[in-house]
Each structure stands twice: as structure tokens, then as C-alpha cells.
Amino acid sequence: MPTPVNIQYAVEIDGEDIKRRLKGLFSATDETRELEMELDRKISDCIQEFLRDERASTEIELAALAESARQSRVPDLPSGVLEYLDDLAESMIRHSTHTASPRFIGHMTTALPYFVRPFGKLITALNQNPVKVETAKSFTAFERQALAMMHRLVYDDPDDFYDHHIQQKDSTLGIITTGGTAANLTALWCARNASLKAKDQFKGGASEGVSAALAAYGDRDAVIIGSSLIHYSFDKAADLLGIGSNNLIRVPTDENGRIDLDLLRRTILRCRKLNRRIIALIGVAGATDCGAIDPLVEMAEIAREHQIYFHVDAAWGGPLLFSRLHKDKLNGIEMAHSVTIDGHKQLYLPMGLGMVLLRDPQSAKVIERNAQYIIRSGSHDLGKRALEGSRPAMALYLHASLSIFGSRGYEILIDESMRMARFMADAIREKPEFQLLMEPQLNIVTYRYVPKPWREKIPALDESDNDAVSRFNIRLQKAQRREGKGFVSRTRLGRTRFGNSVVALRAVIANPLTTEHDIRTVLDDQIRLSALEGVSCE
Amino acid sequence: MPTPVNIQYAVEIDGEDIKRRLKGLFSATDETRELEMELDRKISDCIQEFLRDERASTEIELAALAESARQSRVPDLPSGVLEYLDDLAESMIRHSTHTASPRFIGHMTTALPYFVRPFGKLITALNQNPVKVETAKSFTAFERQALAMMHRLVYDDPDDFYDHHIQQKDSTLGIITTGGTAANLTALWCARNASLKAKDQFKGGASEGVSAALAAYGDRDAVIIGSSLIHYSFDKAADLLGIGSNNLIRVPTDENGRIDLDLLRRTILRCRKLNRRIIALIGVAGATDCGAIDPLVEMAEIAREHQIYFHVDAAWGGPLLFSRLHKDKLNGIEMAHSVTIDGHKQLYLPMGLGMVLLRDPQSAKVIERNAQYIIRSGSHDLGKRALEGSRPAMALYLHASLSIFGSRGYEILIDESMRMARFMADAIREKPEFQLLMEPQLNIVTYRYVPKPWREKIPALDESDNDAVSRFNIRLQKAQRREGKGFVSRTRLGRTRFGNSVVALRAVIANPLTTEHDIRTVLDDQIRLSALEGVSCE
Predict the structure, then answer these.
(1) Of A120, A139, A245, the CB nearest to B121
(2) Which CATH number belongs to the domain containing residue B465 in this structure?
(3) Which residues of chain A does B351 touch, with a Cβ-Cβ cutoff of 8 Å?
(4) Is residue A164 part of a domain?
(5) B330 and B472, same domain (yes or no)
(6) What is the C-alpha separation between A147 and A152, in angstroms, rounded?
(7) What residue in A sits closest to B164 (Cα-Cα)?
(8) Shortest CA distance from B487: residue in chain A
(9) Looking at A162-171, A371-380, B80-89, B472-481, which range is the least confident one?
(10) Are residues A205 and A335 part of one domain?
(11) Looking at residues B453-471, what average pLDDT do you find?
(12) How many Å apart are CA A161 and CA A167, to the nearest integer?
């Protein structure tokens, strides 16, 4: 007998029947509850099966996956929830990337603590919308609290500062975003509007536009300055904000990926001379490419001297502040006007959680918007000062994890992944097949395999040698990805001690389950794969 | 005896102990599995208790909630997962807004089908990152499929169009965003970059900035045109994109909230005459305020005649396309260059899921970005053409719901909520205490309570009468919100048949569990509350 409230149709059924069954999908009856429990159990089983598999991915080709998702018409009739899950398990779940695998050490995806999975269900079920207090009554205060804790981690203001601002509706200690990209964009939005503020008869860039603002201020154009290693989200932000991505000035770095301070100073002076308005200076605390950290203290001083807005992108590196051993690496971050940190990176939380922290709780006023039907001025609504409107209560993950890990828990996670990265760098150094391309400053290791014919020429590899070695490493990375047992990513490093624009294998270590054995295995696999037909140079 | 892998500390413990316990939070052992199951059961119980409560909210004051979230320091030591949940249940979950309550009919939050809750856990557990195929191998194809289905719903191109584009890496049928705000921003970003494209020696606005682009094109400034009822996200977008929010031209509407076409034509001609570059024309399909739908066919024709990019914001109204009875209301939407639809509105999905659909699959090329370490040109990576970078696999909800509801399921949800809104409008018309402020075009009803002294003067209420009635309705809405049994929101309508700038009570009907009885109760409660001290005018 078919269950009365679930949707399970073999044949055409009439509208009244669909209607009754639809209501069953929404109702809070015992029957629906049982169906939900059954689905929940099956999904938990799928999850466990998925997580226990230690491979980085299955061997299936992308084209085959695409082939199973070619139907472009919304089905006319409803289908059963459990049937849908069965299909999904076979076609999608099974072939998902094992981002939590101990040997998936190639991207900034971390393993997750178990509690986030049930909390994911909770966030979905409560369906709070923090854009407005009326749709997120108690959560609003909790999001503010989580942001205040992160603000304190970065800026460490006195108690009375937090007492005053933490639940003060006119203060913005930080803004939750989907991720680092939106956080960086939000920071530069604040910077641009502050720089192009109203003066005399001019009403300000936010309302009059960038073109009118530059005219009012008598500037030729507007620029943003950072190193050549700043994240590509700044290109997007410069484009979006009407500044233009070519007006993002990328100052070269030294061999360790740190901005060249002399060149930076000269760049600023040249901009000033040419009437190019500097909207912001960007410091990097953990470059996506290679983990480099800019000299933040010096950059902050330069920014202060020239009265430039200073933003630090610590999307990856921010949580180092929990580590007594490593926090000094971020010295100077507390002088930044704003700081980006991602929850879904080294806070070990699920995708979709970034934040920008603001030193001055009033600085977000320049992006404030109100609307009669939704966020009224004078309200506690968090949507008043944010890039996004309606959004999920992702900050609940952050609130939970700050309590459940505590500072000392996060400290251990950071210290361990840093130690493991050093282990990997040492292992690479010991193997003649590999070259460590940069001394890792963080838990990101860049290296390459050097095939035999070139190994003997080290260190005298010329540009054409380097190109050949780069092509080899692309083939090697693809072969390992295809095999699916382990995974590192690849990038092209602009500057290294062995040459410029060379392809690097890139390992990102952020999984407490990754062991020294895993790292050795990933490297040994690369040595094995390098002899394969289609990879090797013979 | 304490469980060995969970974190439960009463007293200070040493680092090795924390380390071991931390690993337990991440490991896939049977022990961790049991702890996860226990947490999962407790969270399910919390959810059921929460969902069974039919109140719109508890009576607790915001200030009391804020008081419980004033601690601004990350705790030093870890705390137990279950202990944290106990605290959370008491302080946060219990006082969350019941957005799914049948009498919470005030905002665009809907009730949710049960299957999204376990799916929320699944999305969290898989932790795919669709920015890149390497971190979302199979999911990439599924997100493309869900977007193609939505594209087909709107544009209904022939089979061979979808066969070609659905899994074609160079085509973008749509872009998933956190919500309507980011979707509208993305659409206008495409529009602006297309309008300010490269020509002759000029490299285009995306790379050179808005100011240089206007100079290259010889335009005074850039504008965006829509009705006075467009969503406030367009103000944000105009600000963000460097156009300036004052250059968002809001053309007045008629009494039904539809843009005045004569004024629109005149506005366009005036802009052309003054060398003001028109970046886009925006049509509304379901105004947030009152549900009004612009005359889309006529607007599309005007846009075509003047070669202006036409964007339709159907964040709320888009799913009407599933209804054979109501889809004609959106005629003309298929002529838009881009269309915003929210999943977390009338697709009955959780917060955090919006999308913009693009008529021309090549039109997103103008916002494309690549980066060596993450999204390489020529790849299948979805992050190449998107506002956001790393983001969660929210489109899985969409993929699931399109199958599980089917077109006919969504049709019923739409038809029922439209019927229920008409029922509410009729009930309001029948009660002498109320005035229906606008004939509802969609499932949003705007009305107000008219206290006795003014009731007799209808329809001759002057401005000061209207102001007094507005103040009364603000008090009434707050009193009902405070009581917590039911909830409607309020807004201020610019233009109604009874006066301009009047405060309206605003009901949004999007809950299959809301009955005629619920609606009558919410209205009866308002009549009862209107006599309360502090609300009434006596």
C-alpha cells in the first residue's frame, strides 16, 4: 500500500490527489515526521558511506557525468522523495569530490567536524533570515555576538568597547558574507565610498557615481594597490565598483611572495603625482597561490602616512591569530581598517561563510541602505549595512564552533597543519625528484617534479627547460586527479628562485586526519605516475 | 564515565588531551558516528518542537535576547557539543521567528517541504564548492541542469538550444547567487559591461572603469531606469557599480503599482537628449511592496526599440510561470535579457538561493575572470562567470525540488496561494474596519485598519487624517508582532487610491498550511488589538 502523504506515482493522478500529497510535504503530522525520519536515515547512511571512502574522487569522466544531466525540462508530474534520493546517490553523491579525504590536499577545502552536519539541518529547518529582526528575532543577537568575538580576535579592543558596540544597532563590528570574494568586495565598497565622500556641493560617489566623484575631486582616475599575489576577487571588485580592473595596481613581490615595499612606496608617490586617487591598499595574509604573508606592519605604516584605507585579506590566514606560536606572523593586521576572514577555510566550517571585520564600527555607514517594507532606518536589522539582502543564518556555524573548539582547539588545528606543511616541505627537499619552489610561510606548499633529463641541469634550467618541466607537471597533476587516489592542485607562480612563470604543484594542508603517511603516499604516487605513458617525457 | 572522543571538560585539561578529543570531532570512527547520531536526534527533536509551535514568535523582548549574547571573548577551552546545544535551544532556537507558522504571513519567507531538512545535512556533509570542477566534480553538471530547467521555464527555447548549451562549458544559461540582491547586481553588472564595451582604442569599462568609459563614449553619465517600486537592491547595485544611486531613475507608477509607460518613454527620450547613457531598463514581476507586475510586453518593446538592456526582477513572481492559470501575467518576461528568480521565495526552498537567468548564453562573457590557481580559462569551472567565488552547493535544493514537486506541484502551490490572497482581500473588503489599499495582483495583500473616528469620513480623508491613520497602523502592527500569535508586516505605499505615502499592513501568503481560518484569525486579532490601550486613538 502506498503511503498516503508521500509522493509516489507510477501513473497519472488527478489534481486533488497531487494537492493532498503536496500538503503532506509541508505538514507537521506524525506521518510526515516518519517519512522525514526515513529520508534522514537514508541520507545519513549515504553521508557515512561517502565520508568513509578515502579516495579523493572516483575515476568517472566529466563527460559521463554531464551525460546523465542533459534533461532540460522540469518534469511535469511530481516524483517520490526516496526515488529521487536513490537516483542522486548513484549519479551525483557517489561521484562528488571527497573534499574531506585525508589525501585531498589540493584546495582550500577542509575536513569538517561532525557537529556541522546536524547543525546544517537545524539552520535549514529554522530558516531564519538575518536581513531583518522580524525574520530572525533571536538569531540577530547571536550573529552580532559571533562577529564581536572575531573582531576581538583581530583588534583586541578593551572591554568597554565591546560592551558598548556588541549589541548596539548603530555599530557594525563586522558583516557576514557568502565568502571571501563578497567580503573583499564589501570592504572595498566601504573604502571607495569613504574616499569619494560628499564635500561642498557634491553629494558623494555612492549617490552620484564614480565619474562625477572623480570630477568633483579633480582626480584623473581611481586605483587600488596590492601585490601581484592578491586574490582574483580584487579584479572582480575593481571591475564591479566602476574603478576598472586595469586600475588595480599589482606591485611585484620578492621571491617569498611578499610585496616589495620600495616599489610600493614609489607606486604611491607616482599615483599621487599623476592625480590617481588611491582608494585602498591591500595586504595579503595567506596568498591563495602559495600562502605568502605581506609585511603588514610596514604596509599599515605606509597606509597611515599617506592616509590610505588599508584592507587585509586574511581569508586563509586569519585564524593563525588563535595560535600563540604563529600569531606574530600577522602582526600589523590590527592596524587594518578592515579584515576578511573565511569561516569555510581555517575555521573548519562548511562552504558559504565569509566575513569582513571593521576596525571602526561606524565605517559601514557609507554603505547603509533602507527600505520601507524591509529594513527601516533606526531598526536593529542587519540587512541595513550589507552587500546581500535575504541570506541564511550561516553565522550559527561560527557561533557554535567558537564555543565548541574554543581558542585552544583552534590553536591546535592551526599548529598541527603548520607542522604538517613543514613535514611535507622537508619530505620534498629530501627527494631528488622534487624541487621545493618556495619556503612555506603557511600550510600551503608549492613544489614541482623535475624529470630526470632536467634534474641534472639544476640549477641551470633556462626558460625553455622550465617550460618543458611545467608541461610535465601539468600532465602529472592531471594524471593524479584522474586516478583519484590523492589530489594536489596546480598553479603558475610568477616568481620563484628557480625561474619565473613556472607551473607548481600546490598542496594545502587543512585536515586533522591527514597523516604523515598520507603525505608520503601522495608524493610517492606522483613519482610512480611520472613514469606513466602520457605523463613521462620519453 | 565521559565518552572518550567528545569534548566534555569540567576542569582544565592538558594539550594532548584536547588534541585527542579534537581529532574525535573529525574522525569517521564508530564512536564519533554515535555521538553524531545522538546530536542529530536531539536536533531533530528541537526542530519538531519548534515547528509544531504555531505562534509567530515568543513574547520575549529583543533587549533580553541581546543581554544573553554580550560575551565578546572566544572561550579559551573547548566546550561539549551537547552542552552547547542545550544552551542554544534555550536562548536562541526557542525564540527564533516562526517563519513557517501558518499565521506568520508578513514576509517573503515560506513554509518548507520536509525533504529540505535532511538535504540541508547532505549539502553540508558533501561540502562541494561549485567554484571549480575539481571541488565539485559531479555537482557541476547538476547545477547546470537545474539552471537549464529554470531557463527553459522562462525562455522556452527549442530542444536543440538546450541540447547544445546545457553542459557546454562556454555557455552560461544562468548563475546561482545567494539571493535576489546578488542576482540583480549580477544582471546589471553584465548590462553595464556590455553597454560600456571596448571600442576603437578604448579597452572597455570593465578594465578601464566607468569614468574612462563615459569619456570614451562621450556620455555625461550613466543611468538605470525602473519604476518607483523596484527593489532596494537596485539602489545598492547602482551604488556598487559606480553609477550612483541618484542615477537610478524611478518612474512613477499608476494606482496599481505598474510603471507609467508614457512617463517611461519620455524619460528615455530625455536621457538620450541629455547624453545620459541608459545601462538598463528594469521590469518588476512582483513588487516586494505590493506584488505589482509591470507591463512587461510593452517595456520589452520599448527596450528593443531603443536598444536598451532589459532586466526583469521576478525574484518573487517568477514561479507563476508554472501556473497555467496565472502565467499570462508574466507575458513579456521571455523578451528580457536577464531574469532574477529566488529559490527561497516561491520555489519554497531554504534561505540563500537566488539565480539570474540569461537569454543569451554568451552574455556572461563580459564578467568572466580567470586565475591560475583556481579557475582556468577553458575549464568547466562555474566560478569563471559569477559574482561569488567559493560558495555552497545550494542548487542541489533546486535540483531536488524541481523533480520532487514537478511543474504540476508548483502550479498547485502557486494557484492555492493566489486563491488564498483573493480570499483575504475579500475578507478585508467585507469588514468595515479595514480598507483594501490595492487590488492584489499576486499573493501580497496591502490594506489598513481605519479607526472609527476616520471611518465615517471615508472617502474624504485628507493628508492629516491619513497621517493619523498611518500612525495607528504602525502601533497596531507592533502590538500584533509583540503578542506573537500572528504576524503581518507593514510598509509605506507611495501611491494608493486613498492617498499618497500611507502606511499599509502587508500580508504575504506563501504557506500551504495557512487556512482561511488562519487568515480570519489574523484579521480578527487586529480588530481586537485595535481597542488596546497604547494602540487605540482614545
Answers:
(1) A120
(2) 3.90.1150.170
(3) 127-129, 390-393
(4) no
(5) no
(6) 9
(7) A70
(8) A134
(9) A371-380
(10) yes
(11) 91
(12) 11
Residue B164 lies in a domain: no
Number of domains forming the structure of chain B: 3
Within 10 angstroms of residue B485's Cβ, the number of other Cβ atoms is 17
Predicted pLDDT at B374: 60
Residue B280 lies in a domain: yes
Query: Phi first, then psi: what are they for B3, rounded to 5°?
Result: -65, 140
Range of the domain at A59: 1-91
Question: Do residue B421 and residue B360 come from a single domain?
Answer: no
Contact list in A for residue B144 (CB cut-off 8 A) is 66, 69
In angstroms, the CA A509 to CA A313 distance is 19
With beta carbons under 8 A apart, name residues in chain A contacting B390: 108, 179-181, 342, 344, 351
pLDDT for the residue numbered B459 = 80
In chain B, the N- to C-terminal Cα span, in Å, equals 65
* Residues B345 and B417 occupy one common structural domain: no
- C-alpha A97: how far from chain center: 17
CB A447 within 8 A of CB A455: no
Q: What is the mean pLDDT of chain A?
A: 93
Residue A110 confidence (pLDDT) above 90: no
pLDDT in tens, A338-365: 999 999 999 999 999 999 999 999 999 9
Tens of pLDDT, residue by residue over A208-238, are 999 999 999 999 999 999 999 999 999 999 9
Residue ending a domain, among B302, B331, B364, is B364
For residue A438, give the 3-state DSSP assignment.
coil
Nearest residue to A524 via CA among A449, A461, A463 = A449
Task: Report how far apart, in Å, the C-alpha atoms of B183 and of each of A34, A324, B109, B149, B270 are.
Answer: 37, 42, 18, 17, 29
Tens digits of residue pLDDT in B161-212: 999 999 999 999 999 999 999 999 999 999 999 999 999 999 999 999 999 9
- Per-residue pLDDT at B437 exceeds 60: yes
Contacts of B239 in chain A (CB under 8 A): 189, 193, 206-207, 367, 369
CB A429 within 8 A of CB A448: no
| This model's pTM is above 0.90 | yes
User: Do A117 and A30 share a structural domain?
Assistant: no
Q: Which residue of A has its CA nearest to B52?
A: A28
Whether the bond between A459 and the residue before it is cis, its omega within 30 degrees of 0, is yes
Q: What is the pLDDT of residue A5?
A: 38
Q: Express each pLDDT in B223-254 by its tens digit.
A: 999 999 999 999 999 999 999 999 999 999 99
Picking from B72, B123, B215, the nearest residue to A120 by CB comes out as: B123
CATH code at B330?
3.40.640.10
DSSP B377-390: TTS--GGGG-S-SS
Residue B385: pLDDT band by 50, 70, 90 thresholds? Answer: very high
Q: Which residues of B touch A151 (CB under 8 A)?
A: 72
* Percent share of chain B, pLDDT over 70: 96
Are both A84 and A114 inside the same structural domain?
Answer: no
Q: Is the predicted pLDDT of residue B157 greater than 70, yes or no?
A: yes
Nearest by CB to A22, which of B239, B322, B409?
A: B409
- Other C-beta atoms within 10 Å of A418: how many? 20
- Pairing mode, strands B338-342 and B310-313: parallel
Residue in A30, A59, A88, A96 to test binding to B, most B beta-carbons within 10 Å:
A96
- A212 and A316 in a single domain? The answer is yes
Domain boundary among B92, B113, B147: B92
CB pairs below 8 Å between A and B: how many? 571
Q: Is residue A320 part of a domain?
A: yes
* Same domain for A472 and A426: yes
